[in-house]
Amino acid sequence: QGILYIVATPIGNLQDCSMRAIQILKQVDLIAAEDTRHSRRLLDQFGITTPLYALHEHNEYHHSQTLTSRLLSGTSIALISDAGTPLISDPGYYLVAACHQAGIVVSPIPGASALISALSAAGMPADRFVFEGFLAAKSGARCKQLEALRQESRTLVFYETPHRIVDSVADMIAIFGAAREVVMARELTKVYETIHRSSLGELFQWLQQDTQQQKGEFVLVIAGAPPQSNEEIPAEAVRIFHLLREELP
Ligand code: SAM
């Protein structure tokens, strides 16, 4: 039986490809990739000639069955995505789930992920956090998602695209308030890497003033909601609490 390796690839800087990742990508029989043309360029850089198989979000469910059968008959496979760690806002979920069901060994080859890279450099509590991936494309749906997170006290992490960054920050201001702290991590590991910490209001102004900052790839790390003060606990709840306390031994 073959093993399915989940291999992280760089998010910009090619030197972030681990030695183990290169070794596994050379050694396996097949590499399942999101975009085979994009991945071939990466593999060429490292002299990897292993055959590629297209596994993108539109065919993932169907092709996962084919790949599982091949694993069962002894083919070893590595799964990669266009950048970073597969399955993190990227395809692979159906394949990995199918492998577990079929009793196939799944082994991660860890490496870059924009989520963890941004969080590690944000200077916000990272012992507990909430990763929301991409927000909805339309403002109405996006505001609903943000509304559900208004009271979330853990650090929030979002992925964002250049054409939505300004609108998303505007919606975040509407829901979380302009004073909430944010770190915008842009173009991580690349030439124009920018880690910018400010309030949401200041970030919005900065993005408007310097449109260069709207280009590239983004992670937004947002401070969690401050703990609720006592005054916000309803008077009735406080009354019941005191009644109960009197009854306690
Ligand atoms: N699987 C990837 C990972 O582990 O980070 C994420 C894939 S997701 C389709 C692509 C999104 O990740 C981008 O839109 C951006 O939000 C974020 N991203 C990827 N590379 C980045 C980088 N170098 N700098 C900042 N954000 C990045």
Automatic annotation (TrEMBL):
Keywords: Cytoplasm, Methyltransferase, rRNA processing, S-adenosyl-L-methionine, Transferase. Its main location: cytoplasm. It catalyses: cytidine(1402) in 16S rRNA + S-adenosyl-L-methionine = 2'-O-methylcytidine(1402) in 16S rRNA + S-adenosyl-L-homocysteine + H(+). Residues 4-203 form the Tetrapyrrole methylase domain. Its EC number is 2.1.1.198. It is an enzyme of class 2 (transferase). One of its GO terms (molecular function) is rRNA (cytosine-2'-O-)-methyltransferase activity. GO terms for cellular component: cytoplasm. InterPro entries: 4pyrrol_Mease, 4pyrrol_Methylase_sf, 4pyrrole_Mease_sub1, 4pyrrole_Mease_sub2, rRNA_ssu_MeTfrase_I, RsmI_HTH, SAM_MeTrfase_RsmI_CS. Transmembrane segments: none annotated. It is found in: Cytoplasm. Pfam families: RsmI_C, TP_methylase. Catalyzes the 2'-O-methylation of the ribose of cytidine 1402 (C1402) in 16S rRNA. Belongs to the methyltransferase superfamily. RsmI family. This is Ribosomal RNA small subunit methyltransferase I.
